[in-house]
Write a structure and sequence with these properties.
single chain; alpha/beta; Aspartate Aminotransferase, domain 2; 2 domains; eight-stranded mixed sheet; three-stranded antiparallel sheet; 39% helix
Length: 418
């Protein structure tokens, strides 16, 4: 009987989906952006700017396309861009960065995360994730065959006025280590909390990394959105950490061009090389004209004072939304960085269906009934710790002033629901 005969007997059922992705569903961002679109809600959920990128950045892209920079770029990064990144970051790292050996351009920071984990994590290795985390971290670890190990930030319920109140329990972090621990992922300024890790916290993490021979993947895409008196400290600049740190950045966050998907990784040669080897089999290379545009933008930022302007622009929007949320009775937690604000939703009496997480119910209700979309934070926690997000919601302020004003008008109705 032919192997293709319809009468053939199969020893196993047909299952085309690989086990590594079988448990994945749509992201929380996809769900709530779709819900906001369907209901006409103001979208303060997904963190993408709804305003135009700076004119000088857009002009650089137009010029790059007009100059016919439209073919494959060097796999590790367009030469002009890696040179511009070296010029920008060398003073910040306190060393001269080799643009061709210590910098990699990626398809956004998300590919930088994925390529780094693919390059540095073996099947069975453990990766420490600090909760709440950016949701691509555990997915990337699982697809590499690694095992995520979760350590939540802790805060006292009576001390939630600031993201800085969320602390890493260093004893808990140390207890999570094992002989299989290979990598620790750090996000500062953090998404979704807006926490900026202090020098003391980073020194303690660095001490653990050096003592236990760990590599650190430091996601710093919100590096230019830090609000005084907080200070952004790059863990790679601390003693013993340059040799064991991969630092990620993002043009999408820096220049309000999230759709361009241009990111970068900075690390010593022995770490960048394996990441480049993984990267060449993921996208091979990144959009050439957009790399050129980001390079030109970086060249021009010092004369324009752009980074200072960006921080002040977002600080003003932060304070605007903090006031709106406070007046609505949502007890916002002041972020020291990023463009997100977490709020305490305890005052809201929202129906929760059996088996539904409260934060999901609250954010669906806010979107449908109040007309303002926020993101529920439970997907940023492992299942055993998701209850820590039950009374939280995440709002973003990377939106135009008119949209923030409309959100304020709608959120003022919250008092009528109490």
């Amino acid at each position: 009987m032919s192997a293709f005969d319809s009468e053939s007997k199969h020893t196993r059922p047909y299952e085309p989906t690989a086990a590594r992705v079988r448990g994945f569903g749509a992201t929380v961002f996809a769900e709530f952006t779709a819900l906001a679109n369907a209901t006409g809600a103001v979208n303060l959920g997904q963190g993408f700017p709804n305003f135009a990128a700076p004119d000088f950045v857009k002009e650089a892209a137009r010029n790059a396309i007009a100059a016919d920079l439209n073919q494959y770029a060097r796999s590790a990064g367009h030469p002009h861009l890696v040179e511009a990144l070296s010029q920008t970051y060398s003073p910040l790292f306190g060393r001269t960065l080799d643009p061709l050996r210590q910098i990699l351009v990626t398809v956004g920071a998300t590919e930088g995360i994925f390529a780094t984990i693919q390059a540095l994590v073996n099947p069975g290795d453990e990766v420490l994730l600090i909760e709440p985390f950016y949701d691509s971290y555990p997915a990337a670890v699982l697809m590499a065959g690694g095992h995520p190990v979760y350590v939540p930030l802790r805060h006292h319920p009576a001390q939630t006025a600031s993201a800085a109140c969320w602390q890493l329990d260093l004893d808990e972090l140390a207890a999570a280590l094992s002989p299989r621990t290979r990598l620790l992922i750090l996000n500062t300024p953090s998404n979704p909390l807006g926490k900026v890790f202090t020098r003391a916290e980073l020194l303690a993490i660095a001490d653990l990394a050096c003592t236990h021979n760990l590599t650190v993947l430091s996601d710093e895409v919100y590096e230019w959105m830090v609000y005084a008196p907080a200070e952004h400290i790059r863990i790679a600049t601390l003693p013993g950490m340059w040799e064991r740190t991969v630092t990620l950045g993002s043009a999408g966050k820096t220049f309000s061009v999230t759709g361009w998907k241009i990111g970068w990784a900075i690390a010593p040669d022995h770490l960048i090389h394996p990441i480049v080897m993984a990267h060449q089999w993921i996208p091979f290379s990144v959009s050439t004209p957009l790399q050129e545009a980001v390079a030109v933008a970086l060249d021009e930022t010092p004369a324009r004072g752009y980074f200072s302007w960006l921080s002040e622009m977002y600080r003003t929007k932060r304070d605007r939304l903090l006031d709106v949320l406070d007046q609505a009775g949502l007890s916002p937690m002041v972020p020291d960085g990023s463009y997100f604000i977490m709020v305490d939703t305890h005052p809201l009496e929202v129906p929760v269906a059996p088996g539904e997480r409260r934060d999901l119910a609250v954010c669906r209700w806010l979107t449908r009934e109040v007309g303002v979309a926020a993101i529920p934070p439970s997907p940023f926690y492992s299942p055993p710790h998701q209850q820590l997000a039950d009374h939280l919601a995440r709002f973003t302020f990377c939106k135009s002033d008119d949209l923030l004003d409309e959100a304020a008008r709608r959120l003022s109705r919250l008092h009528t629901f109490r």
